[in-house]
Amino acid sequence: MQQKYLWLAIALFLTMSTVAQDQKKVDVISGATSPATTKKEQLKTELKTEILEELRQETLVESKTIPSHKPRLTIGGYGEAVASYNFFSDDYKKYQDAHLHKGESHGRFDLPHVVIFLGYDFGRGWSMGTEIEFEHGGTESAIEIEEEEAGEYESEVERGGEVALEQFWIQKSFSPAFNLRMGHIIVPVGATNMHHMPTEFFGVYRPEGENTILPCTWHETGISLWGMLGQQWRYEVMFLPGLDSDRFNSKGWIHDGAGSPYEFKIGNTYAGAFRIDNYSVPGLRLSVSGYIGNSFKNTLYPQTNARYKGVKGTVLIGAFDFTYNAHNCIVRGNFDYGHLSDADMITAFNGSMPASSVSPKQAVASDAIATGIEAGYNFFSLSPKLYNRDQRFYLFGRYEYYDSMFKTPDRVQHYKWCGRQRIAAGINYYPIKSVVIKAEYSIGLLNNNSYTYTDSSGITRIGHYNNEPAVSIGIAYSGIFTR
Fold it and tell me: How far apart are CA 47 and CA 12, in angstroms?
């Protein structure tokens, strides 16, 4: 740096000396200023300005007053393609009439999530990020002429799915410990919402428990404050609109209450979320997160009936999760517990809504739970040749227990089939760091639950819910394409 300044100073001195000598000669000979002299004076001024500006910029960079790099575009994403064969019924009455659906099976091919990430660093601490997500292959529709129906025009949906702007935020970073993010943001509650890329869990599909009772991936428009405190702590707090209790249901608890069936998100009630991560132990992350917010009046036409006066539908969620990644093994775990106040009144209100409403009109529980743990070992670590190629081959196992109707008020019907255990085992093969090939066998255990039904002869019998075994395979990627 000092040598550069020295050479620049010498160049400036020599230039000024040369121009001064030339000017002196001209003045002596002619006693006046010639066009050549004016041009040299202009050259001297421009060169002096250029050198001084370069010196100023170098000084600012050294003192970190301005960034040392230009604004940068970041492109990345992740995607999953999966296939599964499920040895259980896909009928919507498979729990209501389980005895009629024994031995049934079905298969599925799917693109659960394909996401494109775009980010841009504007400089001076300003940046933006977006995620465009195509769920289940997106949507396709067309207008066709039906020749067999007198040439009528017919609108046809060719494929199901969703396209969503999962993230869009603008961020101002004041320091590593203080970043303000505004826009559409991932709600940092639970393990899967924060770590939902397919290279961050072993299963072919996302962990079933959290993906059932919580919005996943949960994204809302709001304001987030986050930062890193040294190398060991990360925090985040978020202000966001409340959930919509109209769309709570039996199987998913609050899962469907995060989105909006309208072109905007209703904001009659508000909520807060937080997350704290600790990295004190090498290879180990310990995290706690939570959420609180009212949900009952967060509808297009808030209820003013005196019967529902004082009903708030407060949602409380507490979650703990961890990841240990060291010594060629990965262990992940989560525990989530949620409570909904006024669950009986919300159940009654939703049940009274007209058929044209957005509500499924189902019973909703006061408490829900999801817990799980998975562990895998990289067997390629036993081969120095494969290990040095950075290939990995994990054999893993996973156990989950979850219940979207863990507790229900006396006046709310309790569906036993909402609670289950799930066991899975399989492999994850990484031919390269950003690509993984997955395969697993899983089974949902429901045999401990029973129900009564009346057979065709009028006799009351006891039935048992059918277990839900499945075989699944998939391939996925996750990465940043620009560096």
Answer: 8
Q: b/e per residue, 364-398, with b = 16+ CB within 10 A? A: bbbbbbbbbebbbbbebeeeeeeeeeebbbbebeb
Q: What is the pLDDT of residues 62-85, one digit of tens each?
A: 334 444 455 589 999 999 999 999
pLDDT tier at 22 (50, 70, 90 boundaries)? very low
Q: Residue for token digits 């910029």?
A: 57
Distance between CA atoms of residues 242 and 250, nearest Å: 19
Chain centre to alpha carbon of residue 390 = 27
Whether a cis peptide bond, with omega within 30° of 0, leads into 217 is yes
Q: Which residues of 37-47 are buried (b: 16+ CB within 10 A; e: fewer)?
A: beebeeebeee
Whether residue 423 contacts residue 445, with contact meaning beta carbons closer than 8 Å, is answered with yes
Closest CA to 428 of 398, 400, 399: 398
pLDDT confidence band for 337 (50 / 70 / 90): very high
Q: In this structure, what is the dihedral angle of CA atoms 412, 418, 421, 423, given to the nearest 10 degrees?
A: -160
CA 436 to chain centre: 19
Nearest C-alpha neighbor of 216 from the set 274, 179, 181, 259:
259
The pTM score is 0.81
Residue in the block written with tokens 């394909």: 114
Max Cα–Cα distance, the chain, nearest Å: 129
A 10 A CB-CB count for 66 gives 11
Structure-token pair, residue 423: 């066991």
Looking at every residue in the chain, the average pLDDT score rounds to 84
Which residue, 169, 171, 161, is CA-closest to 133?
161
Torsional sign, CA 214, 220, 226, 231: positive
Q: Give dist(CA 443, CA 428) in Å, integer.
A: 18
- Angle value at C-alpha 98, between 93 and 102, nearest 5 degrees: 115
Q: Pick from 16, 78, 92, 27: which is nearest to 49 by CA? A: 16
- Asked if residues 167 and 131 have their Cβ atoms less than 8 Å apart, the reply is yes
